[in-house]
Amino acid sequence: PALVPQVGTNLTDLRLPRKVTVRELGGCMGPIWPSYYSECSALLFVVDASNPAQVSSSCIQLLSVLSAAPLASVPVLVLFNKIDLPCYMSLVEMKSLFRMQDIVSCATQPITMLETSARDGTGLANVLQWLRATLGDP
């Protein structure tokens, strides 16, 4: 099945082992993201690693999120997704394009980066491991 960009908002509950609610907000929903920052305990920021044309806008959105006061100490996981596609950019390329070394050194929150494929599941175990380590026990 074809994967389409998230355009609305979805809620999903995970057990890590305690219950955690994941709120998914599409990139086009950027203007309303700040209304959810105060209830955020961890942030997963998903980037399409197969779309070089989107890198600059994704980077601007990431910088905006990282500079938001309510998220100043919220752990961040940046996911470079769609690594199953032949045209994807590697983690090294994405880190370079995003200037992640500069972003990480200036950010107030801890930032982790992973490669994933939502389609074939690559990297999702690492995402769950990060969520457990970050949110597992209160």
Automatic annotation (TrEMBL):
SUPFAM superfamilies linked: P-loop containing nucleoside triphosphate hydrolases (SSF52540)
Taxonomy, superkingdom: Eukaryota
Positions with a binding annotation for GTP: 27, 81-84
UniProt-recorded Gene Ontology molecular function terms: GTP binding; GTPase activity
Cited InterPro entries: P-loop_NTPase, Small_GTPase_ARF/SAR
Keywords, ordered alphabetically: GTP-binding, Nucleotide-binding
Name of the protein in question: ARL16 protein
Species: Cephalopterus ornatus (Amazonian umbrellabird)
Lineage: Eukaryota, Metazoa, Chordata, Craniata, Vertebrata
Gene: Arl16
